[in-house]
Amino acid sequence: MSYLVRRLVRAILLLLGVSALCFVFTEMAPGSFFDDMRLNPQISPDTIAGLRAQYGLDQPLAVRYGRWMKSALHADLGYSIAYNAPVAPLLLSRAKNTLLLSGTALLFTWLISIPLGVWTANRRGRLLDKAVTLLTSFLISVPELVIAIALLAVAVRSHQLRVGGMTSSDVEGFSTFQRAQDIALHLALPVFILVLCETAVIVRHVRASVLEVLNTPYVHAARRYGVSRSRLLFRHVLPVAASPAISLLGFSLAGLLSGSLMVEVVCGWPGMGPLILEATLSRDLYLVIGGIMLSALFMVGGNLVADVLLFTVDPRIRKAGTDAS
Amino acid sequence: MESNLPTYSTPNLSKAETSYPLLRVINLSKQYVRGGLWRKRVSISAAAAVSFDIARGQTLAVVGPSGSGKSTVARCITRLERPDSGHIFFEDSDIAQADSTYLLSYRSSIQIVFQDPVTSMNPRFSAREVLEEPLLLARSALSSRPGRTNRLDLIRSQMAEVGLSPDWTDRSILHFSGGQLQRLALARALIVRPKLLVLDEALSGLDLSTQAQIANLLLDLQAAHTLTYLLVSHDLALVARLADVIAVMSDGRTVEVGATHQITSRPAHAVTQNLLAAATASAARFAALARPS
Amino acid sequence: MRAKTLTLIAALVLLHLILLFAGFFAPYDPTTQSRELPYAPPTRLHFRDSAGLHFRPFVHNWKTSAESDISETYKEDLSQSYPISFFITGSGYKLLGIYESHLHLFGTTGPARIFLFGTDGYGRDEFSRVLFGGQISVAAGITATLIALFAGSVLGIIAGYYGGLVDESLMAVTELFLSLPWLYFLLGVRAFLPLHLSTLRTFFLLTGVIGLIGWARPARLVRGIVLSSRNRNYVLAARAFGASDLYILRRHILPATFSVLLTQASLLVPRYIAAEVTLSFFGLGVNEPVASWGNMLTTLQQYSVLTSYAWLLTPAAALVVTSVLYSALADVFHSQLESLTT
């Protein structure tokens, strides 16, 4: 139990660390945001002065940080200049779409990776294994951006999938089912890109951990005793190989979030990615900070879920957690 | 050609000098503290109130079961660790709490040979590099560092002295056997002409025949250069062959100190008796392999 | 070394040489526009004509013919053929940034143009731009890698050598950096820095940011090596001879880090090249008119461009080739490292 508590403390410290980093950066580049805003003819000097006063930007860093923290805990993440609206609702509406994309991608990634990893580990050295290893090596070497652009080109050319945005333009007359179908068709390409990139990484790790377990003395002994291959796999190997796989979950979340940002921009999926990019390009300070914090929250949340899963699945962690306190 | 190579002081010592203790250890204590930022701090007493003397040209053996604090004593004497309290008089100077600059002049006088020769040398080095290191670093006995050719001559002669072929100077130490590596370690310790040589279980990792050879080598070197040995070991049979004085340790304390023949014939403490019992079994075998003195 | 490794290294060296001497290998200056030939397809090389087989390939010029009012298509102007010359004099460039030169490996004389990879929307030769853009992208990747490895090594050595509180706090910081999604972090840092700077400043800013985000993993690896080496007996033995901390670092600890650092370098370079390309693609990196593989791909965000002009994907292809070569090198280093420790 204390293991989980420690993990929670760690997560909170991580979030605090990220927010501190953000504010340190604003301090290190004091003029840049508002200097650029001053150059923007659409924003009047009064607005800028008002913003400065409102956010207490003439106050020391610690005070600013404190005030932002306080309002963040009340789900007020500041105000967006470009959109002329509060940051939090803006982010949250987009966040839903990102979660849809990332969640679906995560699901499919693991649905494919685990069986594939186990299968190739089982058939080590044979044609299937070699082909998969070659493919994953190639996919890992190629940058995600290139894969995204290439697949987008193929998709647009083939006119099969609906690309661009989350819904088609004539979505008004659709029934709920048709809407869902429409969204799914739009979701297909981004998810496919993400799954392709992540699976390549995860399959290798799953394969490696299954192989490790397959080579242990107790598995060899079980084989000699005549335990059937499938029973061996499901009752003996998989439970043990599960824990390194689950600990991978947290690690793959970071990759997935970074990847989803890029895929959203390339495919035009209306998630947090394009929003944060826009915010960066238009120097929208609080939107940027809010976006980073929200994505850090997702990361940390996902890691915590992985930790809980690991705790419940692996008795070794449970024992270690309760012993070393 | 001036010689700035290290040399031994004259081997002919007067009776008074030979009986004067080269090393006096008085009430040496050392504790180790475990734990850090997150765990509770626990202190383990490794050595407590250890005392003994070694005279010039003598061999003193520190024996005891595992965990009795022998290695701790060896490390404190060579100042690889700083003792918590007590005195270590080397030639009248107390080096127990001396700072590193003061110690620089003593580094050449006290040397140590470790138990595992494989880990005591950087695996990427050649034999020459291993032996050259102390020459490049030593300060006290030399007014200036010897030149490159002088160093190479010195290295070759030192290797020959410990029984290694001088042609092997550029060979990587990965190609040396365990016994050969220990000879190399010995050469490395001797190349700076120390007065006191600490052998921390230096023969424990070797097979019996190699042990015998190295033991004989040690005796020869001691006679030739009037070396003083501090031998740390758990093997009483080996010690009986090499040591003049034995100090028995148990749980960090010295429980018995005396001349070899006295300890081996009339052990007073229970620990000594246990060690002796374990050793008599192998003693016969050892004596059969050893060279007659 | 095995033949496979040798060919790999040769390929990488060749790649870098071509990029380094981009001015020589490229027939044109990357900023020269041929406004009359936007989105021209790659020039076809011919070896055979009515007279028979020629040793020297020749090309035809592109001629625009407006078939319909909507699009222009390109047809080869067969009235004239222009042979390709080698080692010809062309536009000026600076070799290695210092020496003025006009020598190009190949090109055409007269009104002929040779566009090996076609042209972009402004009529600029894509082949030349890929070479010059590669200079920027690959240089950014290598520089960022050097920064990350240097910063990581220094901090890793400090953490490993001094241990205790210094070590624990540094490791906590690395955990922070390692657990963040890199692209978000990159965007965030980039967001707080001025948007439009001179090319040189942008380059250094970019590489600095990418490198400073990536110091965490090398730091951990180096720290691990320092920790394991620090208490080795041969370090103790050196101390017994009076070795200073600096000597021990230089002579015993640092050489042990080299193989790990090499493997890391071969892993990081392609990743950082991709990072620069991604940033420039988003418009946050190197800006026009300077070419980088990233901002050359930006036009592909329009679907019409993406589907019609396939040759504009050549920067992506170049990126893939570079990444695959480096990944293969990393595999080689990794297996060598494993064979050393087993």
Task: Give an account of the 3D structure.
The complex is a heterotrimer of chains A (325), B (293) and C (342). With 325 residues, chain A is mainly α. Chain A is built from 13 helices and two strands, in the order ααααββααααααααα. Chain A has a domain of 188 residues: MetI-like fold (Orthogonal Bundle). Chain A has a two-stranded antiparallel sheet. In chain A, a hairpin with a 4-residue loop joins β1 and β2. In chain A, α5 runs parallel beside α12. Chain A is globular, with a radius of gyration of 24 Å. Chain B is α/β, with parallel strands linked by helices and 293 residues long. Chain B folds into two domains: 190 residues, P-loop containing nucleotide triphosphate hydrolases (Rossmann fold); 84 residues, Rossmann fold, CATH 3.40.50.300. In chain B, a hairpin with a 2-residue loop joins β9 and β10. The longest helix of chain B is centred in the last third of the chain and has 20 residues. Chain B is globular, with a radius of gyration of 19 Å. In chain C, 58% of the residues lie in helices and 15% in strands. Chain C has twelve helices and five strands. Chain C has a three-stranded antiparallel β-sheet with strand order 1-2-3, with no helix packed on it. A two-stranded antiparallel sheet of chain C has the order 4-5. In chain C, β4 and β5 form a beta hairpin. In chain C, α3 runs antiparallel to α9. The radius of gyration of chain C is 25 Å and the shape is elongated. At the B-C interface, β6 and α4 of B face α4, α8 and α9 of C.
